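Newbie here. two chains, one complex. Structure please?
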Amino acid sequence: MELELKGITKRFGSLVANDRIDLSVAPGQVHALLGENGAGKTTLMNVLYGLLQPDEGEILLDNKAVRFGSPKDAIAAGIGMVHQHFMLVPVFTVAENVTLGIEETRRSGLLDRRRTRQDVRELSRRYGLEVDPDALVENLPVGIQQRVEIVKALVREATVLILDEPTAVLTPAETEDLFRIIRQLKDGGRSIVFISHKLKEVQAIADTITVLRRGKVVGQRPPGTTEDELASLMVGRDVQLRVSKEAAKPGDVVLDVADLTVADETGRIWVNGASFQVRAGEILGMAGVQGNGQTELCEALMGLRPTASGQVTLNGRDLTQATPRQRLHAGVAYVPEDRQEDGLVGEFSVADNMVLDTYDRPPYASGIKLNLDAIASNAAERVKEFDVRTTSVDAPVATLSGGNQQKVILARELAREHKVLVASQPTRGLDVGSIEFVHRRIVEQRDKGVAVLIVSAELDEIYALADRIAVMYEGKITGFRPPTVPAEELGLLMAGATDQDPGPEPTPSAPTAIPGAGQ
Amino acid sequence: MSDQASSPGPATAAKKEDEQEPHASFGQALRDSILEGHTVTIIILAIFTGFVVGGLLNAFTNTTVLHAWGNFFSAPGHAIAAAWDTAVGAYVAMFEGSIFNPHTVAALFQQASFATAVHDGYLSAVFYPLSETCVQATPLILAGLAVALPYQAGLFNIGAESQLIGGMIVATYLGYGVSLPLGVHVVVCVIGGFVGGAALGWLVGELKARTGAHEVITTIMLNYIMIYFLTYLLSFGYLMQAPHATNPVSPIIAGSAHLPHLFGPSLRINAGFLIALACAAGMWWLLNRTTTGFEFRSIGKNPSAARVAGMNVERNWVLVMLIAGGLAGLSGAAVIQGTDFSLNFQSYGTYGIDAITVALLGFGRPFGVVLAGLLFGALRAGAPLMQAATGTPVDMVQVLEAVIVLLIAAPALIRTMYRLRAARGGGVGGVMSKGWNG
């Protein structure tokens, strides 16, 4: 089935989210839609899926104009969508989720569970999805949940499958699996619309790349196009994909973590005897597959989780038992992993979020009285300094894009006096332009003599920033490496290989001997 | 969608900031808190609908009206007129009982001179309905604030009832059991009322902070405990039962513990009403102008971000419940010291539950609570006259309140009825559903 969009325009008030967009997807093709957050990708797909009605333009299926009043119409026409946030019932099995809404019944009126299970198994086998129809969805890893969504679309006989930012939640290995599945679907004659802002992935999987910027198609490119060219198209100016930085000049040890063990309420150990040091003027990159204790490590460093054993010292001051506030006051700047959940109060204004951890100190407060003028002028200054795009400092921070929200957090944390910057997944979900901005600021902090700890699941980010790389696996630090280490070697460490050979860096069992910098 | 496209950029944002007043003035904030765009429309329509439903119910349960409808085909105009008269008549009586009665003005102007009119009480008769409305509204406002304040910090206080009883017990005891100089006594009793309620609020906060016990459960349970504790206290002479009394009632508090009347002895309006207004203003100031309020609101909106920002979530739970309990306690003190002057086993009335509806109708904001309290106060003040003049039972008030609150909790109903477009925000209904997740 050939899908064509002609002159699609969608306006929200004065904002033109989609401006005369033309797009055609041939059968058996992966068509990538590349663009920054807010470029109009999702709006376009919502138009295609019948969630939104276009103001102008038409949708053609095999050269016949169609109108989708609701997703029901789109599904009936053979269009399936896998949303960025999955629409699954966690306590149902895979088969139950798949059949939800189109339940097959036997003549008696009872659910025909066997039939559904067979369908799932059959599809699973044909496309190598490896989904167990009887597994409970809540027990499945994110990557498999996504496949359940794909199965849902396939059961509804989708010939055009829209994947909205499908890799945002996946580990590198899961992404590889997804690509394999996409290729199989493609070989089966289905067309895929792949929405992303990640250049590498688009290059790896797409047959055609359409780049959107501010609601307009700014170009169509073959997959062989260089990353730099795609990035400039996307952002509208030349972008540095990797910030330039000079060699680090590490100073004294600022953050010293010795034999830190962190367990949760159930007694499960998340961080197991981790030891590392971060010196002034260096960036330590903590690599590792998501879920190997990095989140818990950061939370323990901030005092948000109790420490089972071990010690955390900052400039020689023992902070192991300190409260979060004491640690903030001691000079720890913290960029949490989940900015909406832990970093911001969404309904609060930009100005209030800019003082979320300094509201009780002068000049923002005298006694218990808030000084609203100081808060407002601080916000105006920070917004300018960090180029935060917002209609006003009084706008709720939830209305800002992800990149601008992250800028608000960075602006707040870096405005405070700090000696250490702990940033967890600092660019997750951000577009190319914002990543560049955040990376530049982080390197700038290092150059000012701040000790920086970056935790990231993205190897690209680790390589771009780190002066020294540590790898975490199942709560343990499996090795330290210089940034020149090949990715294969890091991959092995991330998969649990330990340091057998005495390399340039000693094993974490002898923390006192860790040299300051990797190079 | 696209923030870049829609934003004028940081330079203009900063400039705009300079031109505008950097923060809302008191008056502006007051206006904002009253005029919450679509929310206000829904509230007004809900109140209107409540009155229409109440009127229909009244008209079609009235025997005269039903009889007239029985003769509908012979005299259709008569049936409709009878229904209209009954419905409207009840509301007119209610209005006269709660706000303004023209007859009292007429009587005032028939007096020979203004001085004698004042002396004979004709002037106070004019203001009597308004005074009654304020008297009825006082405990509702204070107890409503006791629910609204924790709501801002993400807690759902169902325990205004127990906290109010706590305040009543302490205020009553200090009122008859202690003798203090005039002026001092009343203040000590009011403070005692605050402390009595605050102690119970503190207990709830401490249980939640230390053990994680959900405040909805603990407050409901404490309501029962305090109701029976009150009966126990009033059942024994050596505790709080009045000497020689056979009923569970306390002694009458001393005159020095009475809250002073604001406009002479013939109008019941007293200093309690001023305390309620001051508490509402104080709560607004606390929430919007202090670091404590900033913490309360942060915790209410996003407790995990508040924790990461270094706020002590548990300590704030305790503090907010303590203040809320104190407000409910003041409500109890205002009833005892303002109008009742002694405690019986039913003194707590339905204030605890009404507090929740008042807080909901006032969408959790201090000035909203004041307006909601005045509305419910007016309904109650007008009800007796309505019953006396038109025979409509006072229970009609509860029907009105129930319909209003129901419609406000389900704004989609109002939107459908009046073909309003869906608002962008969650509407006031979000108050209810969100409160439970806190």
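Moderator note: The two ends of chain B are 29 Å apart (CA to CA). Residues 375 and 383 of chain B are 12 Å apart (CA to CA). Thread marked as resolved.
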